[in-house]
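call fold(seq) -> C-alpha cells
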Amino acid sequence: MEPQMEQSGGEQEPGAVRLLDLPWEDVLLPHVLSRVPLRQLLRLQRVSRAFRALVQLHLAGLRRFDAAQVGPQIPQAALAWLLRDAEGLQELALAPCHEWLSDEDLVPVLARNPQLRSVALAGCGQLSRRALGALAEGCPRLQRLSLAHCDWVDGLALRGLADRCPALEELDLTACRQLKDEAIVYLAQRRGAGLRSLSLAVNANVGDVAVQELARNCPELQHLDLTGCLRVGSDGVRTLAEYCPVLRSLRVRHCHHVAEPSLSRLRKRGVDIDVEPPLHQALVLLQDMAGFAPFVNLQV
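ret:
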C-alpha cells in the first residue's frame, strides 16, 4: 500500500494530479526514479515523508549500485542508508568508498544480496580477508571482481575465492602485492577453465611459473594483463601462445625479460599487444600480412 501523501499546505486545483498521485510501481519507479541519479535521490528523500518512502522503495529494488553516481566521495552514513533495504543487487561498485569502507560496512550488504554477479572494490584498503570470505561464501554467482590495489589480498584469501566461486570469469588483481606464484597456480587449477579476463599487473612476485600454469588451465582466456610483472619472461609468453587459442589482448609493458621472438607468434594471430615490435620485426609482420614488402629507407 502506498503511504498517505502529506498535505502541501495549499489548495489543489480541481482535477490537478500531483506527482505522488501517480501509480508508484507502474509509473514512478520504472519510468521516473529509474532515471534520477543517486545524488539527486538523496536530496529528493528530504522533501517529505512520502517522497522518502518512495525513494526507499526504489532503492530496495535496485539491481545495480555504483557509488560513483553519488560523487567522488560518499559519506559512510549515506552509503548505509542507500543500501539498507537492497536485497536484489547484481552489480556493486564501491571504489569511491575506498578511504573508509570496512568489513562491518560491506559484509551485511553482501549477506543481503546473494545474487551479486559483479563487485568492484578497487582501492578499498581497509577491508580484510573476512570481506572476501563473505563474498565467496555468500555470492556463488559472482562473475566479475575487481580487487585492484587491495594490499590485504593474500594467497589464503584468493584460495577461498577460487574454491567457492565457480562462475568467476573476470578478476582484477592489479597491485595485490602479497600474491605469489603459488596463489595464482591454485587459482588457475581451480577456476582456470572459466576465466576470460585476468589482471596481475604490478605484481613483482608473479613470474613464469604462474603464467605457464594459467596458460595450461585457461583455454578460454581472452585478456591477460602482466604489466610490470618483472619476473615474467619469454617462457611464459611462449606457453600462452601454445595453449591459449582465443587470447585477444596481452599487456607486457615493463616486463623486461619478455623478448620479441616470444611475442611474434601471438602478433601473427592478431593478438593486441601493448609493446611495439622492433622495426625489422614490424616489416616482416607487415609482409606476412599484406603479401609484399614495403620500401623503407633504413639509412634515414
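Residues 1-10 have pLDDT under 50 and may be disordered.
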